[in-house]
Write a structure and sequence with these properties.
With about 475 residues, the chain is of the alpha/beta class. It has helices at about 5-15, 30-45, 65-75, 90-100, 105-110, 155-160, 180-195, 210-220, 230-240, 330-335, 385-395, 425-435, 465-470; strands at about 20-25, 25-30, 55-60, 80, 135-140, 145-150, 170-175, 195-200, 225, 245-250, 260-265, 265-270, 275, 275-280, 290, 295-300, 315-320, 325, 335-340, 350-360, 365-370, 375-380, 380-385, 400-405, 415-420, 445-450. Strand 25 (about 415-420), helix 12 (about 425-435) and strand 26 (about 445-450) form a beta-alpha-beta unit. The model has no long low-confidence stretch (mean pLDDT about 90).
Length: about 475
């Protein structure tokens, strides 16, 4: 069983060397050419002193280059951290600093490290183990700054294996998400390991459903991944154009097709993507999370980590397919990655506490209930409202700020923000300030100044009353 993604890719290169691996805006590379390009990048990184224990931030725009760059980082013995180039500079610089990077792999670095006909890259002097870090993914954090999640080679390889979801080398794949770490694994790495051709949508942002539908028709795409809002719109205008559609989310609704195989899944950065599967065979008001995938064991437990009875509510905890912990944050790691009293073997020794609440039916199907904290999903991405609140206070003349997610009539969650200040502050001022601190999806869709925040009898902010003021 492969413990490294590089071994999986090598198998695809051997079997499909001349087949097109990646396509982007008229450019394409075969599996063999992708392998050569990754080797060249690995040579350059090794020449710059990069090796085992290093993290290589990759800030390249969507295209063939960031895929080759991540593989090249592994060839050099290092870990890769794919950063969205659309991130504001302040946020991106913070992530790079967290990586303690010797090299930032950006356009300038590629320009000064030409692809050459060097011989194949030899193995690094110090070879990574399956438990060494392969990927670092950044996600929202309550303290106002993004937190890094360290994913081992073992966990990445396990995720790639189980995320086939019935897709195969015969499929033509479309990757339409920003190439942050988990979409990168799900939409690019797994298809390449299967030996399929992957098309990367043109442009840099998340394209609308109409653009995706046109691309699917033009290039004969058969399989892709979309967040629920995008998937619902796509099926309205292009149902039957795809063979397979994967929709990752905690809670889905209004997604069903008799012409396309639609599958829902649940997971997060700390689980390296999906850990459940549910085949949507009929319309549901609330689509269940489904059953665990082979790479993970899911426990729904009470506060003492005892499994709850069927039908009772508990916290979702995951073992097996989980990250190693948080980068440079042992305290948070200790709180969220805990010893597993339910472990059956060493592979399940650690339990990741997701903070999500669910119940399990007698048929073993898991149903999502909600969060134990304030974290929300916006457009398929997890957002800690606390990070947005800190950014609002740091970038605008405010006395206080509160942010929450509100589900609209269309079933989509949007961020709403309320704030207090000694003088009137226009929402446009706050939006301008946030643009320098957080990505666009973390800017509240609605901002409202209030005289004071409503309080409960014990002095806490009354969130239900505040949401009623939206």
């Amino acid at each position: 069983m492969h413990m490294f993604y590089s071994d999986m890719l090598a198998k695809s290169v051997a079997r499909h060397g001349g087949k097109v691996a990646l396509v982007h805006e008229g450019s394409y590379v075969s599996f063999r050419e992708l392998d050569t390009l990754a080797d060249a990048i690995g040579h350059g990184l090794r020449h710059d002193g990069v090796g085992l224990g290093d993290i290589v931030p990759i800030t390249l725009e969507r295209g063939i280059a960031p895929v080759a760059a991540a593989i090249g980082a592994w060839r050099a013995g290092a870990a890769a951290a794919l950063l969205d180039p659309a991130n504001p500079k302040r946020r991106r610089d913070r992530m790079i600093a967290e990586c303690s990077a010797k090299v930032v792999l950006d356009h300038d670095w590629l320009q000064t490290h030409r692809v050459t006909d060097d011989p194949p890259l030899a193995a690094p002097e110090t070879i990574p183990t399956p438990d060494d870090t392969a990927l670092v993914a950044f996600t929202s954090s309550q303290n106002g700054y993004p937190k890094g999640v360290a994913i081992s080679h073992r966990t990445l390889a396990r995720a790639v294996r189980v995320h086939a979801f019935g897709r195969s080398e015969r499929d033509v794949f479309l990757a339409s998400s920003v190439l942050a770490t988990i979409p990168f694994e799900l939409e690019v790495l797994t298809p390449l390991a299967l030996g399929g051709t992957v098309h990367l949508t043109p442009g840099q942002g998340d394209p609308p459903a109409e653009t995706i539908a046109a691309y699917v028709r033009r290039y004969g795409i058969t399989a892709t991944v979309m967040d629920p809002g995008l998937a619902s719109r796509f099926l309205d205008i292009a149902d039957g154009e795809l063979r397979f559609l994967l929709v990752p989310m905690e809670r889905n609704h209004d997604i069903f097709s008799v012409l396309t195989e639609v599958c829902s899944s649940y997971g997060c950065v700390e689980t390296c993507g999906p850990v459940t599967r549910f085949d949507i065979d009929m319309p549901y008001d609330s689509i269940p999370l489904g059953r665990p995938l082979p790479g993970a064991r899911i426990h729904v437990v009470d506060d003492r980590f005892c499994p709850v009875a069927a039908g009772e509510t508990g916290e979702i905890c995951v073992s097996g397919q989980i990250a190693s912990g948080y980068l440079n944050n042992p305290a948070l790691t200790a709180r969220r990655f805990v010893p597993n009293p339910l472990a059956r073997d060493l592979d399940e020794a650690v339990l990741f506490r997701t903070g999500d609440q669910a119940r399990v039916g007698r048929d073993g199907v898991i149903e999502y209930i909600g969060r134990r904290d304030r974290l929300v999903r916006v457009g398929g991405r997890r957002v800690e409202p606390g990070e947005v609140e800190v950014a609002m206070l740091e970038t605008s003349p405010l006395d206080g700020a509160v942010v929450a997610g509100i589900v609209g009539e269309d079933g989509l969650t949007r961020l709403h923000g309320w704030y207090t200040a000694g003088a009137p502050v226009a929402p446009a001022v706050i939006v301008q300030g946030l643009a320098e601190a957080v990505p666009g999806y973390m800017v509240p869709a609605v901002l409202k100044q209030v005289p004071a925040f409503p309080r409960t009898a014990n002095g806490r902010i009354d969130m239900e009353t505040l949401k009623g003021m939206a």
